[in-house]
Amino acid sequence: MKRGTLILEDGSEFSGYVFGAETNTAGEVVFQTGMVGYTESLTDPSYCGEILVLTFPLIGNYGVPDEKAMDEFGLLKWVESRKIFASALIVSAHTEQYSHWNAVESLSSWLKKHNVPGLYGIDTRMLTKKLREHGTMLGKVVIEGTDPNSIAFEDQNKANLMTQVSISEPHIYNPAGKLSIACIDCGLKNNQLRILCQLGAKVTVFPWNHPVKQDEFDGLFLSNGPGDPQSQCPETIQTITSWLQSKTVKPIFGICLGHQLMALAAGMKTAKLKYGNRGHNQPCLLEGTERCFITSQNHGFAVQTSQGLPADWSVLFTNQNDHSNEGIVHNSKPFFSVQFHPEHCAGPRDTENLFQIFLDVVQSFKTNNSVNVKSYLLEQLTRRCSDANAPPPAFCSRVRKVLILGSGGLTIGQAGEFDYSGTQAIKAMNEANIYTVLINPNIATVQTSKGLANKVFFLPITPAYVEQVIRNERPDGILLSFGGQTALNCGVQLHESGILQKYACNVLGTPIKSIQITEDRSLFAQKMADIGEKVAPCEAVNSLEEALASAERLGYPVLVRAAFALGGLGSGFADNREELVPLVTSALAHSSQLLIDKSLKGWKEVEYEVVRDQYDNCIVVCNMENIDPLGIHTGESIVVAPSQTLSNDEYNLLRSVSIKVVRHLGIVGECNVQYALNPSRSEYYIIEVNARLSRSSALASKATGYPLAYIAAKLGLGMSLVQLRNSITNETCACFEPSLDYVTIKV
Description:
Layout: E1 3-8, E2 13-20, E3 25-32, H1 38-42, E4 50-54, E5 58-59, E6 64-65, E7 88-90, E8 93-94, E9 103-105, H2 107-113, E10 117-120, H3 124-134, E11 137-143, H4 162-165, E12 171-173, E13 179-185, H5 190-198, E14 201-207, E15 219-222, H6 229-232, H7 234-245, E16 252-255, H8 257-265, E17 269-286, E18 292-304, E19 313-319, E20 325-330, E21 335-338, H9 353-366, H10 373-382, H11 395-398, E22 401-405, H12 416-431, E23 435-439, E24 455-457, H13 463-473, E25 477-479, H14 484-496, H15 499-502, E26 506-507, H16 512-519, H17 521-530, E27 538-541, H18 544-554, E28 558-562, E29 572-574, H19 577-587, E30 594-598, E31 604-612, E32 618-626, E33 639-641, H20 648-665, E34 669-677, E35 684-690, H21 695-704, H22 708-716, E36 744-746
Parallel strand pairs: 3-4, 4-7, 5-8, 7-10, 13-14, 13-15, 15-16, 16-21, 22-23, 22-25, 23-24, 25-26
Antiparallel strand pairs: 1-2, 1-11, 2-10, 3-11, 6-9, 12-14, 17-18, 17-19, 19-20, 20-21, 27-30, 28-29, 28-30, 31-32, 31-34, 32-33, 33-36, 34-35
Helix pairs in contact: 7-8, 9-10, 12-22, 16-17, 18-19
């Protein structure tokens, strides 16, 4: 096992072990905070010549897919370019024992094939801290037995990297496409091309310094790329300038380096950032709105806007962490660009619709039906995906007294497990100067302690007792999602019996209608089918005869679950009729309705904790993977956060589905989406959605440092994720997704 050392230009050394190629190399040292996507990142041309430090500690778990696999457009399917562009990879820990259906080799063997060295056993947290404090530095990887002085530092930003990353001859993709788009390749990623082709465009890719005649195309696309935009792309800037100044107006869309080049062509300036933005969780606010998007980024330079923009140009997006520019748009012409990567790969897919917006604009100009791009962008990016009931903007100013249904008595599935979320909700209400009334029969809880709630009733959480409290206290609002299933069931009964309406007590946060859908299996399945998503095949039954008939239809083995049950009470698997009869008989003692599911035993079980505000901002705070396969109840299973064996494709597919589901259901606050993921191919089912704080929420809060219950309570008052502060930094906004440099395990 050979040793190797990363030496920085300030003389500091980080020693570790070599994996991949045993090769000396040099470059600028940068860190990236993404928790998945090492294959996509390493093949991103924007990392050309850089020594890439991954802050997530366990790398290589899902191996490397077939890098030569092609899609229907002749593009490489699983990697972003033809080779690894990073000069070296630095990680805390790496494994040869990968676990994924799509993997064909380990990360180490793949690096070796491309003659790229890797170092593991490095204190990447200390290294990242140094880079954050001092800014990016030059470095070199020196293999044991080599004289460090024989390896020189190299600053790739002083070279013209276009000659390394751009194609040499023009090439056409999807020749049958209806819209003809010219693309200037400054380090183009495959997924940018793929999305344009999938949306029906014919794309002609040109080398970075190739002149592009405007009259031959319907629109111009500017790709991402590495390096300093001011020093290496004069020919590209000249081409963009000619399109911007032409009397014939045709749409232009730029990404990353393409954004910077568009800005330079329009007369703006760029500057090098201290350490750049590289990761998958950068919040970008759409100018003039409350809509914030989680984006994937990889850049060391940014457009300068502090001194204002040229006439006719406006800021489109602003980074909510460092307030750097993330997008510009022309006020009247169809020119716009973004600093982040809407094509993702790796990272979230929240802004992929920018490609569709671009092609819509191209189509409108082609048919002489021109639109105002700035207005169209704002309209499309703020369009709500759901007409679900959300609290009106002024709701928080009208709430003076709130009733909180607490964690309940000592029963499995409630009590102490929900004491955490209820306590956080009370703190959030107190901060907003709202009088809190708590109902909780359990004196052995933190939330009933003196000094938290303004008034505590030690009463059972049942409709009869809660109605008495509502009648006497007359609260403006009620919080249902902080006391587990008991509180949720009670809230639904209060609504259905008309008690809440009778006393004008508003449900804060997620509407009752959404809760009812998530609690009714058939309604939920129909709601998911409306958006093209599948739930595990399941039937609701009310008797033993119905259960037997259902099992025959679904096919054994089946899972029996009691509806509206606490902590999986009365559930179990049956492989045949003989095992089903006693199981159903027992379960019917706990609930009048049972759920018979087709068994997905052995599949991976994955959960996503999702937060949504009334402005339709959605974030995924944490995802978790059960070490045990599906079939072990989450409460008893060993759970690891974040997931360990999901590739970037799976992680972000399920993330996108989670957000789609939460928006469609109209949830406001926090919820938990659970999936069954096939370990043998790309296939998944939605198991269920908990429209409340769950036990997993408490784990996610402590695993990430993100106070889910506290934030959910504030959102229930009508506040925005952009308006709320990040409790960890107290400087940035709460609209962000924690990126961990550690792993949390719950046993």
